[in-house]
Amino acid sequence: MKIAVIANEEQKRELIKQESNTHEWVWLDEPAVLEDVDCFIDLLFDNSKERTHWLKDQDTSIIIVNAVASLPGSLPGNFIRINGWLTFLNNDIMEAATVSEELKKITEDVFLSIDKKVEWVQDQPGFIKARIVSMIINEAYLALEDEVSTKAEIDTAMQLGTSYPYGPFAWAEKIGVRNVYELLSVMAEKDNRYQPADLLKQEAEN
C-alpha cells in the first residue's frame, strides 16, 4: 500500500515512532498529485471546501484527515476523521470516526503498520481527548481572567497536581490556541458550557 501524508516536520516526528515494513509512506509538505496512491493522510487539513474537493478528486479509496472540530456528515463518505492535533499524534492510540466498516479495516491496517491502534469513537466534534483537554484549557483561561494566578503558576500547579505532560497554557500553545478556540466554539453552538473564555478568544484572534 502506498500512503501519501501531508504534514509538517513536527507532525511527522510525533506520528512515526518506527518506519513501516509493510507500506510505502510518502511525505509531502503541501498537496501534490501522486500516482498509485492508495491512501491520503492530510494532517494539515484546513476544512475548506477547496481542500476537501482537492482531496476528494484524488484517485484513492480512502482519505484520512485531521479534522477535530468537523461536524458529523460534513465530509465526503470516504473521509476518515482523526484527532491529529500535536501532542496527540505521538500516542499509541489514534482516535478516529467513520460510519464505513470497510474503511475501518483499511484505516486500522494503515496505522498498525506504524505500530498504532485505532480507537473508533462517536462521530462528534472533538472526539473524546480533545474535548477534555480543550475544557481544561478553557477553565485555565477563566481562572486567569479572574486573576487567580499567572499562566506559569497555573501550568506548574496542573502538571504537579495531575501529572499531565503539559500545563494548560503550554498545551494550548502546542496544539494551537486557534484550534482550541474553534473546537470550543463549535461545541458551544449546542451547549453553552463550552463557551470559550474571553481571553482565549482574544489570543486566538490575534
Structural description of this entry:
- The chain is of the alpha/beta class.
- The protein has two domains: 2-120, NAD(P)-binding Rossmann-like Domain (Rossmann fold), CATH 3.40.50.720; 129-205, N-(1-d-carboxylethyl)-l-norvaline Dehydrogenase, domain 2.
- It contains eight helices and seven strands, in the order βαββαβββαβααααα.
- The chain has helices at 9-15, 49-56, 101-112, 129-145, 151-162, 168-175, 177-188, 198-205; strands spanning 2-6, 24-28, 39-42, 62-66, 79-82, 93-97, 117-120.
- A seven-stranded mixed sheet has the order 2-1-3-4-5-6-7, covered by helices on one side.
- Helix 3 links the parallel strand 6 (93-97) and strand 7 (117-120).
- The radius of gyration is 18 Å and the shape is globular.
- The termini are far apart.
